[in-house]
Amino acid sequence: MASKGHNPALRPFLPQDAALCAAIAEASITELTAEDYTEAQQEAWIAAVADEDSLRQKLAGQLTLIASLGGAPVGFVSLKGNDRLDMIYVHPGAAGQGVGSALCDAVEKLAGARGTARLTVDASDTAQSFFAKRGYVAQQRNTLPLGDEWLGNTTMTKELATGQAGKATQ
């Protein structure tokens, strides 16, 4: 992984990135969420993102960006529709190096330019403080079934500066 101080490069998702995205998500879930989720919950969560064909279809159908440091892909984000940050994962080796912030900045700017007034995310317990620092406000607590497990997350929203005032989608 690259050292601190380098800005991540962003590029659009390509279909051949699915395996890479699945690996980044698995590493992120495994190494970064242990304080907030049990091993069984982590395994169920990983199983939900491990199918490369399903992940490829999902990410190809959304606005998805890949972040790289020093030429190595280290994270991704997807925007569902114009107003929902659907997935964001950063490889643990790149955590704390501005990758998540760069991905969020890009999605927030793109959504705002599309006239979106409010962006919504269902933040994992691990990511909730990251989003709160970015101005997202908790709206409701959720519990969702994944396999034989239940995972908690929190729906959070952020008001955006829109490119077209008054054109809200929510």
Total helices: the number is 5
Order of helices and strands: EHHHEEEHEHEE
Strand arrangement, largest sheet? 1-2-3-4-5-7-6
Task: Kindly name the structural category.
Answer: alpha+beta
What is the C-alpha radius of gyration, as a whole number of Å? 15 Å
Regions with little confidence, pLDDT below 50 for 5+ residues: 164-170
Stated plainly, the CATH topology of one domain is called Aminopeptidase
Output the CATH class name of one domain.
Alpha Beta
Broad shape: globular
The span between the termini is 39 Å
The count of DSSP E runs of length 2 or more, i.e. the number of strands, is: 7
Q: Give me the CATH superfamily of one domain.
A: Gcn5-related N-acetyltransferase (GNAT)
Topology:
Blueprint: E1 9-12, H1 18-32, H2 39-50, H3 52-60, E2 63-69, E3 72-80, E4 84-90, H4 99-113, E5 118-124, H5 128-133, E6 137-146, E7 149-159
Parallel strand pairs: 4-5
Antiparallel strand pairs: 1-2, 2-3, 3-4, 5-7, 6-7
Helix pairs in contact: 1-2, 1-3
Structure commentary:
This protein has 170 residues and is of the alpha+beta class. It has a domain at 9-115: 3-Layer(aba) Sandwich (Aminopeptidase). It has helices spanning 18-32, 39-50, 52-60, 99-113, 128-133, and strands at residues 9-12, 63-69, 72-80, 84-90, 118-124, 137-146, 149-159. A hairpin with a 3-residue loop joins strand 3 and strand 4 (84-90).
Short recap of the structure:
By secondary structure, the protein is of the alpha+beta class. Helix content is 34%, strand content 32%. The protein has five helices and seven strands, in the order E-H-H-H-E-E-E-H-E-H-E-E.
